[in-house]
Specification:
alpha/beta, five-stranded parallel β-sheet, five-stranded mixed β-sheet, 9 helices, 14 strands, elongated
Length: 383
């Protein structure tokens, strides 16, 4: 958004600079030229004024569109119609003929008949010079169009090449995620992050892939068991990979301090982690429109403190250990949610019907700081 604002500001600044250049050029014209031009204009009829006004409006519209057009918009390339050539040629012939008629009428001096032949020759020469100038302008316009077409083709070629590189990088990273080796999967995850950071248009796709990876079945390793078996080592390594994915999601969902910092992926408006097993999940200070945590298993300390989620779903989720929702702003209900550890909702803005929806095994603290140690409340309501 900030880049678009800067682009519009630059366009209007260019338009203002062009207007100042035109004003300066007009004021620099000698007074004698203006007098001659005024004399010439005074001889126009209605058709001359209408033609001049139409050309002036078309020129102004063309300049404004050329200056204010967004450079990233892909314009459809249309072939030059044959009647454009006929129209341009007719306009040049008409302008040359009208100028010749006017110049010949000016040379008719009744008091100086001896100079009339020379004046007629000069009039024809001037009219032909004007026609040649108009032809040169038409050729210049056609060359400009040819140059624009070349630049247009080059720009699209570069864009297609960039898209092809992105596709190749995405395919390679996706293949790494399917590897049996944890270091290879870790490399694929960070390759996807780098791809999304450099290409904002692909951030939603990358986040969807990372969320899908977390939704895959997983059994956390038992921290109390120090086993040297291959299975236990694989579980530990997989847990490290998943923690890396969680850190990436958290890091890019926290709002940036300024618009210049593009570390915050504002393009991502939804995270689907339904059914995932999340380890020591940290979602503190995130700002996202929508997130789904239904049927999730939160293992270890879970943090949603100071999080802002406009639409969240926690149905049937299980918090196996402590859950921190301090100062969270979350629009949700905890239908069928189980809190097996201490649940902290101090100063949180959450629907108070949580007392009727969720089950608490180890107590917690409500929004106003009051603690409780069991649930249901035996007829009491949440403070």
């Amino acid at each position: 958004m900030a880049k678009a604002v800067r682009s519009r500001a630059a366009n209007w600044t260019s338009l203002l600079a062009l207007a100042l250049v035109l004003v300066g050029a007009i004021t620099a014209v000698p007074g004698s030229w203006l007098t001659t031009a005024a004399t010439f204009v005074s001889t126009w009829g209605f058709s001359g004024w209408a033609l001049a006004a139409g050309l002036a409006v078309l020129m102004v519209i063309g300049v404004i569109r050329a200056v204010t057009r967004h450079p990233d918009i892909r314009r459809e390339v249309r072939p030059l119609r044959w009647w454009w050539g006929v129209l341009i040629a007719g306009a040049i012939l008409a302008a040359t003929g009208l100028s010749l008629v006017w110049l010949l009428s000016v040379t008719e001096e009744p008091h100086q008949p001896q100079t009339e032949p020379t004046a007629r020759v000069e009039a024809v020469r001037t009219a032909l010079t004007l026609g040649a100038g108009l032809v040169g302008i038409a050729v210049l316009v056609l060359n400009s169009r040819r140059q624009w077409l070349a630049e247009h083709t080059q720009r699209h070629t570069e864009a297609d090449s960039a898209e092809q590189r992105v596709t190749e990088l995405y395919t390679a990273a996706a293949e790494q995620l399917g590897s049996d080796q944890a270091p290879v999967r870790m490399a694929g995850i960070y390759a996807l992050e780098r791809l999304a950071q450099s290409n904002p248009a692909h951030r939603r796709t990358v986040v969807n892939v990372l969320c899908a990876y977390l939704r895959m079945p997983f059994t956390p390793p038992d921290d109390d068991v120090h086993s040297e078996t291959v299975e236990h080592k694989q579980q530990v390594q997989e847990a490290e990979v998943r923690l890396a994915v969680q850190r990436i999601l958290h890091g890019h969902m926290v709002p940036a301090y300024s618009d210049e910092d593009d570390w915050y992926w504002r393009e991502v408006d939804h995270l689907n982690l339904a059914g995932a097993t999340l380890i020591n999940f940290n979602f503190s200070r995130v700002d996202v429109k929508s997130a789904t945590f239904a049927f999730c298993n939160f293992v270890g300390r879970t943090r949603f403190d100071s999080a802002r989620i406009l639409n969240a779903k926690f149905a049937q989720a299980t918090f196996l250990d402590g859950a921190n929702f301090r100062r969270a702003h979350i629009d949700t209900r905890f239908m069928g949610v189980e809190f097996l550890g201490f649940a902290d909702f101090y100063e949180a803005q959450i629907d108070k019907r949580i007392a009727d929806d969720a089950t608490f095994k180890s107590g917690g603290r409500w929004m106003n700081g009051e603690k409780f140690n069991k649930h249901p409340f035996e007829g009491e309501t949440a403070p």
